[in-house]
Amino acid sequence: MTPTISSLGLDKLSREDRLVLVQELWDSIAAEGPSSLSAGRRDELLRRSAEVDSDPDDGISWEELQTKARALFRS
Q: pLDDT tens digits for 46-75?
């Protein structure tokens, strides 16, 4: 039987505690590594990561990206 929020008693936790638990669950899944990443996709991610590492100042900040996106969608 698949566990549910109510069967585990998680519905009785506060919102903050549930958010902490969600983060812990996500971190535990991420720690296991990718489960269905093809060799080609893995190689591409490694290539892109190396590219970013080689010139971390190339690109735009998150704030600049948000500003550009907002301007684009207002048009």
A: 999 999 899 888 888 899 999 999 999 986
> How far apart (Å, rounded) are the C-alpha atoms in residues 54 and 25?
32
Q: What is the pTM of this model?
A: 0.44
20-21-26-27 Cα dihedral, nearest 10 degrees: 70
Tell me the three state secondary structure of residue 2.
Answer: coil
Asked if 21 contacts 10 with a C-beta cutoff of 8 angstroms, the reply is yes
Instruction: Return phi, psi of residue 11, to 5°.
Output: -70, -15
Q: Tell me, what amino acid is at 72?
A: L
